[in-house]
Design a protein that fits this description.
single chain, alpha/beta, 23 strands, 8% strand, nucleotide-binding, repeat, ABC-type glutathione S-conjugate transporter activity
């Protein structure tokens, strides 16, 4: 009731039954599955290990460890796979068996209807029979149909609930597995694939469970039907059976083909989603380089191949629809033909014809279901295999690191060749080395993330870990730091101060209650790094592994953190600390220094010892301390390796990454400061991402219209006509049959039976053609529609401005491209087909009953009203439940995505349990919306079937009353149609609600066409000179821009003039507006006022692609896409190989790339994760060299590389871009000391603008910075 009065909300839902909750369901499955795996393992161990058990290979779990490594080499033959199916059966079987019982009873009751029909027809024919017999039969009919309805609904309920539990269990198991999977195995499946396991495959199982009983119940129904038919028509039934048997192989072939298409389509879909995922993560780079079109074409190409497969599947589908719709008719036709032709005296009377028809109609259902069930099982078996493969991936060796109570000595081997190190308790160990020398790998080994080949690693006490690229969760800042520990306020405040987060908290709109976006989009790199460090410090563990946490922060903040946290006087002074660093200034304070070269520790010792030994280290130190000008107070300006922190490069943020001060850029950018005053700290302000909203109310007609337009109006009209034709013909053919049965019998035969038979056959043929036509036109229409909708959605999303991507979690966008597109591709066309079918069936049945017994006209409107109300009630609730369910689905995947990216952190902190609980809660929350919709379905079905049963009984009753005036043929026709009516009615409501709930997908896909868009990509009448810009003069006049119209400008009133070929450095504290200026230059954000002229052309007049493709930027975060190196450098294929190699040579990557096996076609993995960050940065330099435009913008581009590489890059830029205008946003002031002029920004305004030497002479802001950096 509630659902009808007002749209349902979260609070109206009741909570789940305890036995449906995750924490009950999942462990059952997991424990059964582990038992299965153990069984298989034991079997393997028997075969493999018995002869060569090495004594020390047994560790505390009794698992052979070393052996299992060798085993892979020695054992190519197939071992027995653990069976996931068996585990599932054991877990859910018992409850499920009850449903089988219900099903059997229901199957038997199905056949009571036709039997009563036979008795009724006999009664009408036999005018001497007493009237009470007729009424008794009618009552019996009513009771039987009602009992059958109730039992059927109970059966469905059991099925759906088991389906729901199954889904919960699978999601839970996948989540738990993802937390323990080893890194090698993690690489074999992309994030997209794993998320698909959760979404698509779990759903497949849920769908299958409802049908699975048909596997034995359908044959049972067929057998029973044939038995009754034999009694009725004798041996001529065999003709019908023959036709059915012939149909089966045809469909088997079709099903097999469909399976292969299915697999192909899944593959394309995985690829497409993976690419979309990367595009959304690297969207900022796509925009800066004006590459959207190249990637749009890549996606469209994948999509086209996917649609080709769908089209083939559609042809097959049309074939199978054709065969199945025609099957019952052909069966009836062949049976009647044989029956009439065998023997002159076989008279087709009403009793025989219509009882047979009723039985044939019963047959139709199991035969229709079988192929569906089979294809559903096929899909589920594909899914089962994918799940099994994922669940049997290698797990991390739990024993690769021993947590002992003694600080043992550590020797471990792997990437890192033989190293033996003993780290005493409470010491500070620094690890140094070039990019890619295995520093991070050393820490991974200590965490047990690497596969251990030999040796032991012993760590005393619990570990805290700070990764190189900070991993930030989408929750409040405070929750990110506390990370599930209990609250200790004084300690918390202390940690915040030590990690220099206090100034940031003051700037954030809601203080530490501010919500941080996905992957930390609204924090700058330095802030993320500091939050990540604060999390580790807050946890208070014995051993700290710090992977270059000082890289993304400015020099003096780094010093502050080192002194307050890491150094000899810091918060952690009594803990064991392993610090990977590039900052040479911190080394003298370390107790032990490990120097790494190519995975080996070449030297170790204290700072003094190493300086004395004259090895690689001291040489390294000398080269760079020259650059380093250590101040008397020991502060240096080595700007440590900057890693813009986020996992891979997911960073669509507009934020300057750490500038030269601690104050973060946030509020000033005001990315979410809705309240201009900085003091208002209400948590609402801190909200950032928009949750998926559930739209309410009825689906608007405009949505259906949009879908029709997408199909094409003509095509939709044609399919409607074909539909109508099919149903009219089908009605007429049955009416013809009733006329035939009423033919008078002359001398024991019916004279014109051959004419009757011929017409009957002809009608059947017409029917078949119509069916084929409409199912084909529907499927093709559906494909046209999904092509059009996908194209337009992709275009709309790519045209959206940057601000849109910051507001919308990428999970939502991916969900649109995956789930909603899938619905539009495969679900909607078939559902519309079924809806039309059942609608015409119901109408036809009503017409026939009205013709036969006009008295029913009194009842029908009344029942129609009841039916209508029931339907409205139901649809209102069901639609809203479906929406709530799909909205609560997104958080499951968002959380899962986040977990996958941060597994190493979660494992290092030992927080797996908490994350599992969180995931379970989200799943339960989703099922909470799903369960009521099951119950609502049952409620509806019971009501409707009763309406149907009433119609049947009344048709029978009035037939009994008017038996004098009725011919048995018409009467039989009416009741056999009435028997069908019940099923059609339920089906109709189910379908109409399905159409409504699924068409929501179209609504959600269309919704992005109404969001704001960027300016046009290309201007039609662009009067640009061909080589523009030729000189590269930039003239900025009165320029201001703001991030949102309700905020203060981030930069305002800037007036500068830069001549062609000048080199200009841009400096200023964090938040001074350095990056904002470049964003304005590329029109990522449009100017609020003022203009920028390049070579005298106002850039606001240009198309975005014209502008962005003619100026080049080397961005902060080096973003790569999965694909070949060549594609990453030149997606439009507009340069020759020589040019590309030349660019690589200048960017010092030539030797690296030529050493790769595939050279330029080397595949980069997702986000370029198989290259080090330094190498990615050099690739970005190569991109710039290729484009070689007159204007080059460097956005702190050299921060992620060590000093040596930095010098190389600087020299390349000096030589290659000699005559270009270069704008550099700089951290390391020494890189811009030789520039022509320096622009100093402060709070968004120009503070100073002059040559470096005269600025130092003026002793202003620039002089202070230079002094801090030790350059003066």
């Amino acid at each position: 009731m509630t659902g009808y009065k007002h749209p349902l909300e979260e609070k109206d839902l009741w909570s789940l039954n305890p036995e449906d909750r995750s924490h009950r369901v999942v462990p059952q499955l997991v424990c059964r599955w582990n038992a299965e795996c153990q069984k298989v393992k034991r079997a393997e161990e028997k075969t493999l290990y018995s002869p060569k058990q090495v004594p020390h290979s047994e560790d505390k779990d009794g698992r052979a460890v070393e052996e299992s490594e060798i085993l892979i080499v020695k054992n190519p033959q197939k071992t027995k796979e653990p069976s996931l199916l068996w585990a599932l059966c054991l877990t859910f079987g018992p409850y499920f068996l009850i449903s089988c019982l219900y099903k059997i009873i229901q199957d038997i009751l199905m056949f009571v209807g036709p039997e009563i029909l036979r008795l009724l027809i006999r009664f009408v024919n036999n005018s001497s029979a007493p009237s009470w017999q007729g009424y008794f039969y009618t009552a019996l009919l009513f009771i039987c149909t009602c009992v059958q309805s109730l039992i059927l609904q109970k059966y469905f309920h059991v099925c759906f609930v088991s389906g729901m539990r199954l889904r919960t269990a699978i999601i839970g198991a996948v989540y738990r597995k993802a937390l323990v999977i080893s890194s090698a195995a993690r690489r074999t499946s992309t994030v997209g694939e794993i998320v698909n396991l959760m979404s698509v495959d779990a759903q497949r199982f849920m769908d299958l469970i409802t049908y699975i009983n048909m596997i034995w119940s359908a044959p049972l129904q067929v057998v029973l039907a044939l038995y009754f038919l034999w009694q009725n028509l004798g041996p001529s039934v065999l003709a019908g059976v023959a036709v059915m048997v012939l149909m089966v192989p045809v469909n088997a072939v079709i099903a097999m083909k469909t399976k292969t298409y299915q697999v192909a389509q899944m593959k394309s879909k995985d690829n497409r989603i993976k690419l979309m995922n990367e595009m959304l993560n690297g969207i900022k780079v796509l925009k800066l380089y004006a590459w959207e079109l190249a990637f749009k074409d890549k996606v469209s190409e994948i999509r086209e191949s996917e649609l080709r497969v769908l089209k083939k599947a559609a042809y097959l589908g049309a074939m199978s629809t054709f065969t199945w719709v025609c099957a019952p008719f052909l069966v009836a036709l062949s049976t009647f033909t044989v029956y009439v032709l065998i023997d002159e005296h076989n008279v087709l009377d009403a009793q025989k014809a219509f009882v047979s028809l009723a039985l044939f109609n019963i047959l139709r259902f199991p035969l229709n279901m079988l192929p569906m069930v089979i294809s559903s099982m096929v899909q589920a078996s594909v899914s089962l295999k994918r799940l099994r493969v994922f669940l049997s991936h290698e797990e991390l060796q739990e024993d690769s690191v021993e947590h002992k109570a003694v600080a043992g000595c550590e020797s471990l081997v792997f990437f890192l060749l033989l190293l033996t190190v003993h780290i005493p308790e409470g010491s500070l160990v620094a690890v140094v080395g070039h990019v890619g020398s295995g520093k991070s790998s050393l820490l991974s080994a200590l965490l047990g993330e690497m596969d251990k080949l030999e040796g032991t690693v012993t760590v005393k006490g619990w570990v805290a870990y700070v990764p190189q690229q900070a991993w930030i969760q989408n929750s409040t800042l405070k929750e990110n730091i506390m990370f599930g520990q209990e609250r200790r306020d004084s300690w918390y405040q202390c940690v915040v101060d030590a990690c220099a987060l206090r100034p940031d908290l003051e700037i954030l709109p809601a203080g530490d209650e501010t919500e941080i976006g996905e992957k930390g989009v609204n924090l700058s790199g330095g802030q993320k790094q500091r939050v990540s460090l604060a999390r580790a410090v807050y946890c208070d563990r014995a051993v700290y592994l710090l992977d270059d946490p000082l890289s993304a922060v400015d020099a003096h903040v780094g010093k502050h953190i080192f002194d307050q946290v890491i150094g000899p006087q810091g918060l952690l002074k009594d803990k064991t600390r392993v610090l990977v660093t590039h900052g040479l200034s911190y080394l003298p304070q370390a107790d032990l220094i490990l120097v790494m070269v190519e995975g080996q520790i070449t030297e170790m010792g204290s700072y003094q010892q190493l300086m004395a030994t004259e090895g690689a280290f001291s040489e390294f130190q000398r080269t760079y301390s020259a650059v380093d000008h250590t101040d008397n107070n020991g502060e240096t300006h080595t700007y440590t390796e900057l890693y813009t922190a986020t996992v891979s490069v997911y960073h669509g943020c507009l934020l300057e990454i750490p500038g030269v001060s601690t104050v973060s850029k946030l509020s000033q950018m005001g990315k979410e400061d809705k309240v201009p005053s900085k003091k208002a700290k209400n948590p609402e302000v801190g909200k950032l991402t928009e949750a998926d909203k559930a739209s309410t109310g009825q689906v608007k007609l405009s949505v259906f219209w949009a879908y029709l337009k997408a199909i094409g109006v003509l095509l939709s009209f044609i399919s409607l006509l074909l539909f109508l034709a099919h149903h009219l013909v089908s009605l007429f053919s049955n009416y013809w049959l009733s006329l035939w049965t009423d033919d008078p019998v002359v001398n024991g035969t019916q004279p014109n039976r051959l004419m009757r038979l011929g017409v009957y056959g002809g009608l059947g043929l017409t029917q078949g053609v119509a069916v084929f036509g409409y199912s084909l036109s529907m499927s093709i229409g559906g494909i046209l529609a999904s092509r059009y909708l996908h194209e337009s959605m992709l275009y709309d999303v790519l045209r959206s401005p940057m601000s849109f991507f910051e507001r919308t979690p990428s999970g939502n966008l991916v969900n649109r491209f995956a789930k909603e597109m899938d619905t539009i591709d495969s679900v909607i066309p078939s559902i519309i087909k079924m809806f039309m079918g059942s609608m015409f069936n119901v109408m036809g049945a009503c017409v026939i009953i009205l013709i036969a017994t006009p008295l029913v006209a009194i009842i029908i409107p009344f029942l129609g009203l009841i039916y209508f109300f029931v339907q409205r009630f139901y649809v209102a609730s069901s639609r809203q439940l479906k929406r709530l369910e799909s909205v609560s689905r997104s958080p499951i995947y968002t959380h899962f995505n986040e977990t996958l990216l941060g597994t190493s952190v979660i494992r290092a902190f030992g927080e797996q349990e908490r994350f599992i609980r969180e995931s379970d809660q989200r799943v339960d929350h989703n099922q909470k919306a799903y369960y009521p919709s099951i119950v609502a379905n049952r409620w509806l079905a019971v009501r409707l079937e009763f309406v149907g049963n009433f119609i049947v009984s009344f048709a029978a009753l009035f037939a009994v009353i008017a038996r004098e005036s009725l011919s048995p043929g018409i009467m039989g026709l009416a009741i056999s149609y009435a028997l069908q009516l019940t099923a059609s009615l339920t089906w109709l409501v189910r379908m109409s609600s399905d159409v409504e709930t699924n068409i929501v997908a179209v609504e959600r896909v269309k919704e992005y066409s109404d969001t704001e868009k960027e300016a046009e990509w290309k201007q039609e009448s662009s009067s640009l000179p061909p080589g523009w810009p030729t000189k590269g003069c930039i003239d900025i006049r009165g320029f201001s821009l703001r991030y949102r119209h309700d905020l203060d400008p981030a930069i305002h009133n800037i007036n500068i003039n830069i001549n062609g070929g000048e080199k200009v450095g841009i400096v200023g504290r964090t938040g001074a507006g350095k990056s904002s200026l470049t964003l304005g230059l590329f029109r990522i954000i449009e100017a609020a006022e003022g203009h920028i002229f390049i070579d005298g052309v106002d850039i606001a007049q240009l198309g975005l692609h014209d502008l962005r493709s003619r100026i080049t930027i080397i961005p902060q975060d080096p973003v790569l896409f999965s694909g070949s190196l060549r594609m990453n450098l030149d997606p439009f294929d507009s340069y020759s190989d020589e040019e590309i190699w030349r660019a690589l040579e200048y960017s010092h990557l030539k030797s690296f790339v030529s050493s790769l096996p595939n050279k330029l076609s080397h595949e980069c993995s997702e986000g370029g994760e198989n290259l080090s960050v330094g190498q990615r940065q050099l690739l970005c330099l190569a991109r710039a060299l290729l484009r070689k435009t007159q204007i080059l913008v460097l956005d702190e581009a050299t921060a992620a590389v060590d000093m040596e590489t930095d010098n190389l890059i600087q020299s390349t830029i000096r030589s290659q871009f000699e005559d270009c205008t270069v704008l550099t946003i700089a951290h390391r002031l020494n890189t811009i000391m030789d520039y022509t002029r320096v622009l100093v920004l402060d709070k968004g305004e120009t503070a100073e603008f002059d040559s470096p030497s005269s600025l130092i002479a003026q002793r202003g802001a620039f002089y202070k910075m230079a002094r801090d950096a030790g350059l003066v």
